[in-house]
Design a protein that fits this description.
Blueprint: E1 13-14, H1 17-27, E2 34-38, H2 46-50, E3 56-60, H3 63-72, E4 78-82, E5 97-102, H4 108-116, E6 122-130, H5 131-138, H6 148-156, E7 157-165, E8 170-171, E9 178-185, H7 196-208, H8 214-217, H9 224-230, H10 243-253
Parallel strand pairs: 2-3, 2-5, 3-4, 5-6
Antiparallel strand pairs: 1-8, 6-9, 7-9
Helix pairs in contact: 7-10
């Protein structure tokens, strides 16, 4: 019986074999590595991964898909975690995890932030996402795609846009293009925020009204004397600042 994709779970199943081969090649799994796949769907990536490694963890919320996977894969080679990826504690799997997946587009950003909370245990991440989201992840300052997501992820991660994937590679075909991205946590942070919650607050405030200047968006946090002391023009907008400059502001306030 064919599984019907469920809109509430943002399901779009990858079917293009050439692209699946490119994904596996980019991930380059090794037998001794601990991999966890988020949202395995109908096994497009699961099957070729299991040809490379002896065991795989998958996180899946859809009970119908879990039932399908239990019928198609030997439990000895697959550990299924029936839960919401947004609630799953990835640290329970071990210290050196590689995370992969075709993330549901409707919750991709919250999943990325949830993974940041588990980043100490993660070696790298490879994800299929909406192209627009990947463009925001890798965006540089003073571009329209650069925003809060760019800064918060780039503070922790080195990111690489690998390739674009057309809608027809999926069933059902999404209405947007997709892209495959690699994210590797920094072994040593290039810029260290003394108080990371304050850093996050500064970034969120700055991008809260992105058409306004920093003087307005950071009002109550930083005055003109503070901007002058840091050598930052208060007439700039949030999108003009680098990760390093956001860290500088946060550390000044700390």
């Amino acid at each position: 019986m064919k599984h019907i994709a469920k809109k509430r779970f943002g399901q779009n199943f990858l079917t293009d074999q050439a692209i699946i081969g490119s994904l596996v090649q980019a991930i380059s799994p090794k037998p001794e590595e601990l991999l966890v796949e988020i949202g395995p769907g109908l096994g497009a990536l699961t099957k070729p991964l299991l040809q490379k490694i002896p065991h795989l963890h998958v996180v899946e919320i859809d009970r119908d898909i879990i039932s399908w996977m239990q019928n198609h894969y030997a439990q000895a080679s697959l550990t299924i975690h029936n839960t919401d990826a947004l609630k799953f504690d990835f640290s329970t799997l071990g210290q050196h995890i590689r995370v992969v997946g075709n993330l549901p587009y409707n919750i991709s950003t919250p999943i990325l932030f949830h993974l940041l909370d588990n980043i100490a245990n993660i070696i790298d991440m490879h994800f299929m996402l909406q192209k627009e989201v990947v463009e925001r992840m890798v965006a540089v300052p003073s571009t329209s795609a650069y925003g809060r997501l760019s800064v918060m992820l780039q503070y922790r991660l080195q990111m690489e846009y690998l390739f674009t994937v057309p809608p027809e590679a999926f069933d059902p075909a999404p209405k947007v293009e997709s892209a495959f991205v690699r994210a590797i946590p920094y072994a040593t942070l290039p810029y260290v925020a003394k108080d990371e919650s304050l850093f996050a607050r500064v970034v969120t405030s700055a991008f809260g009204q992105r058409r306004k200047t920093l003087r307005n968006t950071l009002k109550g946090l930083l005055d003109d004397a503070g901007f002058e002391a840091l050598g930052i023009n208060p007439q700039l907008r949030a999108e003009n600042l680098s990760v390093a400059e956001f860290v500088t502001i946060a550390n000044h306030l700390a």
